[in-house]
Amino acid sequence: MGEIFGVPTQVLFGQLLIGLINGSFYAMLSLGLAVIFGLLNIINFTHGAQYMMGAFAAYFLLNKLGLNYWWSLALAPIAVGATGVVVERLMLSRLYKLDHLYGLLLTFGLALVIQGVFRNEFGSTGLPYPMPSQLAGAKNLGFMFLPNYRAWVIVASLLVCTATWFVIERTKLGAYLRAATENPAMVQAFGVNVPRMITLTYGFGVALAGFAGVMAAPIYQVNPLMGADIIIVVFAVVVIGGMGSIMGAILTGFGLGVVEGLTKVFYPEATNTVIFVIMGIVLLIRPQGLFGSR
pTM of whole model > 0.85? Predict the structure, then answer.
């Protein structure tokens, strides 16, 4: 098979694939965080729990209603997003005029409650979720085998991230959303229901987490702790990309996933810390993040 930098080609490309898969989830989750923070100024610590809820929603839809993966991919994000709408209306809407710390503390406490409820009910052992039969198997690329489902995860993540960026940055709806963060009274004067728009924006950001959870279920299994395991890394990704930067969240998510995968090949001992080391360096050099603004 040959070697690159003294590493077998198959091992190197295998770790690159794992990095891209992890990066896909980093990008989708950090995108949801960036949307919520950039447009609502809420640091949503509940995001990891909502990612976990997406996976559990898919599990319930399959085992209770007999709905397969594709139905879950459509319905679970809507269900999780609906819970986000309820949270925003009943809790977060009361905190917008207060310091950001209150929103952070509320969402952090809510995440602990949700995680505790699921852990008490289902334990910490992962529940299996079957891979869709249409995406079973793998393709031989010559230098490695590419599992079909993992290829689908990467492609779907790219499509979702690109579509979200386009809507927010290149459409009239996105312009209204961005304007509402700066001057809600002016946007209201144009006949736009700003509170409803804020609620739906938060619901959309939460739905992105639910979508990622469904995508993750066949790979990582359904586990009450799956959100807690990834959310700290995702926050680091958002900080590196720039708080509130949509493109920064996407590019940094995929990029750091690849960096993490390559670190496993060349310096495995640093795998769990490399992203945080990068975050420290970026904050020292560019405190607003790579793509953020002061």
Answer: yes
Dihedral sign of CA atoms 173, 174, 179, 180 in order: positive
Nearest to 48 by CA among 223, 230, 200, 179: 230
Q: List, in sequence order, every residue forming a beta bridge with 3; answer none if it has no partner.
A: 8
Q: Where in the chain are the domains?
A: 3-285
The highest-level CATH class for domain 3-285 is: mainly alpha
Measured CA distances, 142 to 10, 13, 65, 148, 288 (Å):
10, 11, 41, 15, 43
Q: Residue ranges of the chain with pLDDT lower than 70?
A: 1-2, 4-6, 294
Q: Which residues are CB-contacts of 170 (< 8 A; sequence separation ≥ 6)?
A: none
Tens of pLDDT, residues 69-100: 999 999 999 999 999 999 999 999 888 778 87
- Tell the burial category of 48 from Cβ atoms under 10 Å away from its Cβ (0-12, 13-18, 19+): buried
Q: What does the pLDDT look like over 40-74, one tens digit per residue?
A: 778 899 999 999 999 999 999 999 999 999 999 99
- Could you give the CA distance from residue 158 to residue 21 in angstroms, rounded to a whole number? 11
Contact between residue 180 and residue 194 where contact means Cβ atoms under 8 Å apart: yes
Q: Residue 71, exposed/middle/buried by CB under 10 A (0-12, 13-18, 19+)?
A: middle
